[in-house]
């Protein structure tokens, strides 16, 4: 029955040859969230190793803001996103390994920062953007601050609850730049120095929509049991209806759906909505391998 074994082997080779390739993958750029750094071995350091292992040793760049780990950690709280974006745009442009394009994964606030990067910094080209718990419509509440310092968390909470739209808060505190108070929509649009701009809510920047639509995929991951992001629907680009903080306005009914070109991306099947059980940024290896790795596995052209 040797012929049966040969045929069986050929079928296995054909099947796996069609689904698993060893070709060169696009590099991956990662941006960490608040209270994290580029390279902690228990967070992004371990994910970097996993990506390299699963993507044929592709180049993985975990963004570090500044010259050292301390500055990188502090950047998540105290360096304005616009300054961080300018810095990252320059760093990516200098990296020869990224010149033909790259995929990107943002964790928590790193998700909206990378999305802003796609809109403002189209070269080198971003191919697939994966936002892991990113708050694309902002937050209104910070019940559990994922920080190494509880004092820092409490300090941030007090400011956001009382003075988020003061000029000094907008300039000195990262979380104020994406604080979205549905009870004060006019204040938000008038004084937000980051989120209202990248969501085309101050005025419509056609380039933002054009650049975003150049993505092959925009993947948004929502954590179903999230106790940090309020509302958790912001991870799928949804938010409270203006004037209250209970009812969620579906994305397709929001102004940003058309203003930012998300409708066109939806039509072109470029928007991907994923969900997983767990609190903020809590996911297991099996889920990541089954859901995220395939999105990063296309071969470079």
Q: Topology of this structure?
A:
Blueprint: H1 2-19, E1 28-31, H2 44-54, E2 60-62, H3 69-78, H4 81-94, E3 102-107, H5 109-120, E4 126-132, H6 150-163, H7 167-172, H8 185-191, H9 195-198, H10 206-212, E5 217-223, E6 239-240, E7 248-249, H11 255-259, H12 262-267, E8 271-276, H13 285-291
Parallel strand pairs: 1-2, 1-3, 3-4, 4-5, 5-8
Antiparallel strand pairs: 6-7
Text of the CATH class: Alpha Beta
CATH superfamily: Alpha/Beta hydrolase fold, catalytic domain
The assigned CATH architecture is 3-Layer(aba) Sandwich
| Helical fraction | 40-55%
Total number of beta strands: 8
What is the molecular shape?
globular
What do these coordinates show?
The protein is globular. The chain is 40% helix and 12% strand. The model is unreliable at 1-21 (pLDDT under 50). The longest helix has 18 residues, at 2-19. The strands form two sheets. It has a six-stranded parallel sheet with strand order 2-1-3-4-5-8, with helices on both faces. It has a two-stranded antiparallel sheet with strand order 6-7. The chain has helices at residues 2-19, 44-54, 69-78, 81-94, 109-120, 150-163, 167-172, 185-191, 195-198, 206-212, 255-259, 262-267, 285-291; strands at residues 28-31, 60-62, 102-107, 126-132, 217-223, 239-240, 248-249, 271-276. The termini are far apart. The protein has 301 residues and is of the alpha/beta class. The chain has one domain (28-296): Rossmann fold. β6 and β7 (248-249) form a beta hairpin. The chain has 13 helices and eight strands.
């Amino acid at each position: 029955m040797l012929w049966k074994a040969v045929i069986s082997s050929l079928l296995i080779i054909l099947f796996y040859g069609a689904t698993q390739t060893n070709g060169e993958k696009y590099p991956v750029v990662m941006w960490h969230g608040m209270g994290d750094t580029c390279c902690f071995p228990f967070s992004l350091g371990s994910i970097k190793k996993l990506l390299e292992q699963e993507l044929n040793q592709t180049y993985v760049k975990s963004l570090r803001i500044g010259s050292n780990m301390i500055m990188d950690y502090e950047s998540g709280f105290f360096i304005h996103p616009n300054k961080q974006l300018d810095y990252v745009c320059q760093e990516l442009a200098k990296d020869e390994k990224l010149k033909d394009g790259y995929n990107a994964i943002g964790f928590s606030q790193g998700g909206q920062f990378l999305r802003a990067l796609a809109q403002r910094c189209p070269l080198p080209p971003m191919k697939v953007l994966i936002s892991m718990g990113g708050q694309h419509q902002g937050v209104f509440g910070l019940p559990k601050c994922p920080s190494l310092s509880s004092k820092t968390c409490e300090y941030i909470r007090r400011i956001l609850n009382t003075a988020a739209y003061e000029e000094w808060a907008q300039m000195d505190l990262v979380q104020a730049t994406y604080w979205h108070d549905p009870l004060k929509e006019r204040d938000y649009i008038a004084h937000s120095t980051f989120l209202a701009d990248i969501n085309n809510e101050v005025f419509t920047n056609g380039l933002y929509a054009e650049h975003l639509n150049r993505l092959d995929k925009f993947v948004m991951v929502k954590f179903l049991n999230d106790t940090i992001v309020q509302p958790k629907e912001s991870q799928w680009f949804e938010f409270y209806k203006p004037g209250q903080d209970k009812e969620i306005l579906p994305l397709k009914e929001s102004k940003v759906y058309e203003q930012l070109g998300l409708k066109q991306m939806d039509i072109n099947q470029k928007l991907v909505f994923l969900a997983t059980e767990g609190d903020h940024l809590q996911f297991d290896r099996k889920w990541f391998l089954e859901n995220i790795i395939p999105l990063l596995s296309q071969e470079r052209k």
